[in-house]
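Listing S7. Sequence submitted for prediction.
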Amino acid sequence: MPVPHRTLLLNASLEPLCIVSVHRAVTLVLTGKATILEMDGRMLRSERTAVPLPLVLCLTRYVHVPVRRVVPPTRRTVLQRDDHRCAYCGGAADTVDHVHPRSRGGRHEWANVVAACARCNHRKADRLLQEIGWDLSFVPRAPRGAAALVRGASVAEPTWSAYLVA
């Protein structure tokens, strides 16, 4: 099995903070700043020591995070939010669409961007939903919670799912 290149780092309150490299994760464990919550049984060995390969870490002391960044609505984050499903037909989505077209004053924000398949995106073009008689099956919203930051960063490891519930 290949060695994972990243580790989920949780605050002492078990809130997701960020994703760190395995090198940084091992450094946090060896300095006593974090404990390993999840591992896959493999070991990282040196001449004098062996450390379990960490998949999920928890800081030993709480770190106050004053301001949470809002995850921007990029193609990847919108597709993740909408579970790669087209908002119009329910098929597999591969692009994003502005519900209120930018050419008509629509903004690039979470409430105005949905995942769409290429066919629906092309058929809708720069028209409003009312003009073509289409409806959205849900109200688009910004993802909530600290887990959205981690989900937006990259594809999550399977062992992270228990810690990313929002």
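Caption to Listing S7: primary sequence and predicted structure tokens for the chain studied. Residues 22-30 form the longest helix (9 residues). The chain has a mean pLDDT of 87.
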